[in-house]
Amino acid sequence: ASGVELEEGIQRPELHYLTHPQYPLDQVAPMVREGDVWTAEIEMPGDTPVVCFYVSPGEEGPLDLSHIAYLTDRKRLQRYQHSIPIVDAEGHPVQDVEYNLGLMAEHQGRSSEEILVHLNREVSRYPENFQAHLRRWVHMSRKGNHSERIKARVKAEQEALIERYPDRPEALWWTAQIATDRKEELYRQLYQRFPENEHADEAAYLIARERRIQDDADVQMAAQEEFIHLYPESRYLDEVYIDRLRYLARAAPEKAVALADSLIEGSLIPPYDPEKEQEQRINITVLGGRLPEGYAYSLRFDLLSKEGEKGDALDLAERLISSDPRDPYPYLYIGRKLSGETGKSLLYGDSLNYPQDLSLAIEVLEAGLKWAIPKNILELPGYGAFHSFPDHVQSSYRQFYLDQAYVLRQRFLQSLAECRIARKEFTEAVPVLAEAAELEKKIERYHWNENRISPLLGEAFEHLEKWEEAESAYLQAVRQNYSDPAAESALKRIHRKQYGDLGNLQPLLQKCYPAAPEFELTDIDGRKVRSADFQGKVLTLYYNSSGNIERRSGSFPSYVEDLKRWEEIFPKDDFAILHVSRSPKIKHSLFRLALDDDGLGDKLRIKTNSLFLIDRIGRLRLRRELWRSETGQTREVGQKIRELLAEDIPEGHSTTAWSH
């Protein structure tokens, strides 16, 4: 790469390159100077059709898998202005060059017209590139805004492609991905005409899933039965049985009971095969179970609780312990319900009238904890579906799923510690919480909600009268949660008991509040919005991670009304509200609206709609998730705003923590 203008003083430029644009995870290679030219050596897999690259003047590191869809990553991907296509002996681009350049244009947010230029070239040179046909049809539909003329053209091309390649199952497979009006017909043709094809069982599974989405009871059951009959050892068998349980629990509970009992007894499912389970695509957020047997335990527990059969529900929990299934999810689900958790049930909305037994809850959670280890979790459906990816992509995915395994184990530890504390078994709770705190260091970037480990650890130490350890844990809670009223109250108790006054507490608290990240955003009028603009003010940062929530009927109306009221009653010289959106599609707000094109959501680890309070010297002082409206939460936020407005600037600080 030559002709790169580097900032003065930069000595170590880096080459960022992508060998598989369908996975926009780049690799980084150092560059060395040879005369007037900067060079870098890279290794490419033999099947690489094109390398996209740019040169960075500093150490940026590779793109982060967990944030790949964010606007900041899109800006980074837009730097990939250069590419080296692989050509054949005659100098023509090999298959997938233009297809991958089209994918790269997608990642960069280019228009459908620009993307279609690449895809049209690809299908014209390689008409048997069926995947390229699919992407082309997708962008034709977007470009035509779903007009009838475009729909008719796409359908005609699909039929012509299938007719042209009657012996190629790929033509059916890729056409079915976008053929909304004949998807089931094409999937059925695929598995009937090509039963040995790698997608045959998936096609039959997708028919059953489509029936589920359509909510047609009879045809859904028939499709599931046909799938189970045709593919008794399919990698999708687990998900079909879980879907079947979900449906029967609502439509025919007595049949759900019979099916759950059969699954628990192990009479329907082939022996556990880790390699097969890893290939499944069960959603990582599914509750209650990843394997049909595990999900059957959780659902059976709900059905018994719904019918008021508390004794039978307790017996089922004991049976779970004795049968020792390897799926950790039912242990966590049932253990939390036995401990008095009030969260929603699997299928019935609000929490059921679950039996409560703290002693049994501890036994269930401890039994599941031995299965909640990374090695076992990574063999469950949904955790290992990355083994066919390129090596550097595979390693990124594996780390992501390993982190999710740590998250699951920490949930076990937290629930177990809560049970121990509820039983006043504080000594037993401490080592459990200590392990959870160590895991927190590994998974902190995935936590966007309130941290509960440090407050629980502080509570355990306080009851054990280990004042120094309790103070340290509570201060950590304030540090992690930006402000924790319960932890601050506990610290006041400790300081009064230990020192007789609160004179030493305030300086300790002031050191705990983290600095808010600086930002430079763009508002809807194209003007820059900088953190420095809010020097000396209390800032309410209202972050919209998806959707325009004040326009959604019934969604968080209390927050919107309170925000409007606060904007009216608090002095404009001392108080401001900024609405930040992750989506560029949002063009309207009741408040000043800015687009997050600076990675603010990444810096604050935001995954859901959130509200932050930032004090006059640029420190984070409150964080609240807005995924649901909670009674009293807005009152707490309003009170905190008043406290911050009345707060004196700490000694040694100024209002210039944020600067241009």
List the defining traits of the structure above.
single chain; 660 residues; alpha+beta; Glutaredoxin; seven-stranded mixed beta sheet
Task: Please describe what this structure looks like.
It contains 26 helices and 13 strands. The protein has a seven-stranded mixed β-sheet with strand order 8-7-11-10-9-12-13, with helices on one face. It has a four-stranded antiparallel β-sheet with strand order 2-1-5-6, with helices on one face. The two termini are 34 Å apart. Helix 2 runs antiparallel to helix 3 (112-125), helix 4 (130-143) runs parallel beside helix 6 (169-176) and helix 6 (169-176) runs antiparallel to helix 7 (183-193). Helix content is 50%, strand content 9%. Strand 12 (610-614) and strand 13 (620-625) form a beta hairpin. The protein is an alpha+beta fold. The protein has helices at 71-77, 97-107, 112-125, 130-143, 148-164, 169-176, 183-193, 200-214, 217-230, 237-251, 253-265, 274-278, 292-306, 310-323, 329-338, 358-369, 374-377, 391-422, 426-443, 453-463, 467-481, 485-499, 505-512, 557-569, 600-603, 633-646, and strands spanning 14-18, 27-30, 32-34, 37-39, 50-56, 82-85, 520-523, 528-530, 538-544, 575-581, 592-595, 610-614, 620-625. The longest helix has 32 residues, at 391-422. The protein is globular. Among the domains are: 14-126, no CATH class; 520-646, Glutaredoxin (3-Layer(aba) Sandwich), CATH 3.40.30.
